[in-house]
Amino acid sequence: SQKIEQNSEALNIQEGKTATLTCNYTNYSPAYLQWYRQDPGRGPVFLLLIRENEKEKRKERLKVTFDTTLKQSLFHITASQPADSATYLCALELGNAGKSTFGDGTTLTVKP
Amino acid sequence: GAVVSQHPSWVICKSGTSVKIECRSLDFQATTMFWYRQFPKQSLMLMATSNEGSKATYEQGVEKDKFLINHASLTLSTLTVTSAHPEDSSFYICSARASDRSNQPQHFGDGTRLSIL
Known about the structure:
By secondary structure, chain A is mainly β. Helix content of chain A is 0%, strand content 57%. Chain A has strands at residues 3-6, 10-14, 19-26, 32-38, 45-51, 56-59, 62-67, 72-77, 86-93, 100-102, 106-111. In chain A, the strands form two sheets. In chain A, strands 2, 4, 5, 9, 10 and 11 form a six-stranded mixed beta sheet that branches. Chain A has a five-stranded antiparallel beta sheet with strand order 1-3-8-7-6, with no helix packed on it. Chain A is globular. Chain A starts with a strand and ends with a strand. Chain B is an all-beta fold. Helices cover 0% and strands 51% of the residues of chain B. Chain B contains no helices and eleven strands. Chain B has strands at 4-7, 10-13, 19-25, 32-38, 44-51, 57-58, 67-73, 76-81, 90-97, 107-108, 112-116. At the A-B interface, strand 4, strand 5 and strand 10 of A face strand 5 and strand 10 of B.
């Protein structure tokens, strides 16, 4: 059956360190993978999109990698700050379906 | 840019009441809108996809007569929870996409917290 797993429900790190979040999937062949940030009681906010033929994408302190062989995406936040504390969701999109399937999210806490 | 407004942000009502939730794209035209339901500490579960001017496509297990979706214009979609019961209490979130191309990100509203007494 199809499955999306994000590494852990919660991740705690110290300010200034790099946070690495993992998204693994099985029985999917996604054309696109997206990462979103969700704060409590709010809707998700789009961060980055990476296509199946792209290995890496960067935006300011954020970096996403996509390995279709390993069926895995890594999401990195460098020089993390307490304001980065939130739940991060990965979402797979198959391309022609037009809809996304979301992982359960990883809640990141950055301690000062 | 790409702002999606969802209203109301929270609703508390009695069992048997029908509740309408609005989702508006404020600064772009949304060819496609999506409705999700989210339980605490769980992921977003897609309920239905709506395209302007056509009937919504519901996910398996979602009752179309229970959750009525209307996408009458390129900037407005509504979800009506008919005859709501306590088990319908949840966080409902809409999203909108500017085109029908799947490589465009979704822009989300801030959700509606629905509590049925």
